[in-house]
Structures are given as structure tokens and as C-alpha cells.
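call fold(seq) -> C-alpha cells
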Amino acid sequence: MTLSSLVIRWALPALIALSATPLRAETGEPGCRPEMASLQRLPIQRANLGKDEVRISFIGHATFTIETPGGVKAATDYNDYVRPPGTPDIATMNKAHSSHYSRNPDPGIKQVLPGWDPSGAGAAKHDVTLGDLRVRNVATNIRSYSGGTDYDGNSMFVFEIGELCIAHLGHLHHPLEPGHLRALGRVDVVLFPVDGGYTLDQTGMIDVLKMLQARVMIPMHFFGGSSLERFLVRTDRQWPVERRPEPVLTVSKAALPAQPTIIVLPGN
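ret:
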């Protein structure tokens, strides 16, 4: 069975039931670690970044590109509707909706990482290193086609570049348990959905952010802006908000804000 047919088999419709999802604790590695696995050398050019800098670009919906100083690029929730302008080296995907996975990934992608196990045998398990980028996943549950629970059906992905850790929460449907937090480890930058309906409700998402205590929090999955503005009203006076004019942010461990800060990149 091909990856395309597996994706189609497991895809959920654009509108799914919003029933509460039971939880199951996850286990995983103890957090973001500066040490890397053996590095694979890539025939790529170095990015125009400092040795400790990472470039995050908001492409749209739940897709970001993450670019390392060594020129490695990863695309999150890679799909057939909103794609980055170039071919990423790594593409992560989730199966909640067709706007979060691709039936026809660019054949030039070196690593395609589905956030579910296409065989249906259990949780997806990814831990890959390309150049100066390590990517691993933490499995989460999603609502199933019938309105039940698809255990380990999606993933959060963690991107480690040197000592900087970026977590993409994917199409998160439920609060995080201690096992999820242990598996994620320290998070410096979090990319999180704020729609409050298709994913976790906004109150629950605020609780997740309080647990993570990431210094940079970048919202996504906000469908034109109205849900984003509702979220920012809810978080008024909890965290400072910075609105950037361009959908690109350069971050480094040394230059992280002194306190957790929401940084809004334009897009939808």
C-alpha cells in the first residue's frame, strides 16, 4: 500500500464531531537536548543566519518553514494546498484534515514524517537528524471519524537546532498530560492553533501554554483572524503581544524575550 493510499484511508473529513477526547499519557525522551545524533551531511548551502539563529516563516494555516544556520529546511503540516515556495528537506504531516497532509509530497523531500502510524500498529515514532536539525515527534490523540478517539492518531513535532527547541503542536485536540510534557521537554518556541473549535478550545490552549512556558508563542490555524483576535482578548494582560509586519521571525537562544511573549506573524 502506498503512502498516498494510506493517507487517504486515514484522512478525516473537513468537519468532524467536536466531542470531548479521552486522554492517554505518553512517554518519550527527556526534553530538548543540545547533543545530536550522528549528523548526515547535505549538499545544501548555508543560510544567511548567525550560527545560533533560526528563521521561522509562516506560510499559512498550520504550515511554517524552519531554517537552520546550516541551510536545512523543515516544513510543518505539509499539504497540497498551502506549500512553501521551495522544497523542504523535511516535511512533517498530520492526518486530521487534508490541509495538514499531502497525498503527493514533493519527491525532492529527503524525509517525510507522518504524525501517525500508517500501518495502524500504534504511535508514530520519529527521531531524525539532517545536518544541524533534529526532528522528533510526540504522539497525541484525535477525534475519530465516528466521533470516538483515535489514540496516537496525530503528533506534535519538536525541532532542535543547537540549544534551541521549537515545538509545533499540530492539530491538538486535548489538554496535555504529564507524559506529553515530559516527552516535549523544555520548549523555547511554540507554534500553536487558536481556532478554538476544530482543535482544542481556547481556554484549554491557554492552559497548555501556561504549562509549556515557552518564551516565544506564535499562533496559527486562525482562519482569517477573527479567532485570533478572540484569543488575544482572552489572553489580555497575561502575556505581552508583538505584531510583526512580515511573516518571518529570526530567533536565537540568546535573544529570547525575558518573559513569555506572543508574537503574531501575518497570515491565516
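The chain has one domain: 44-264.
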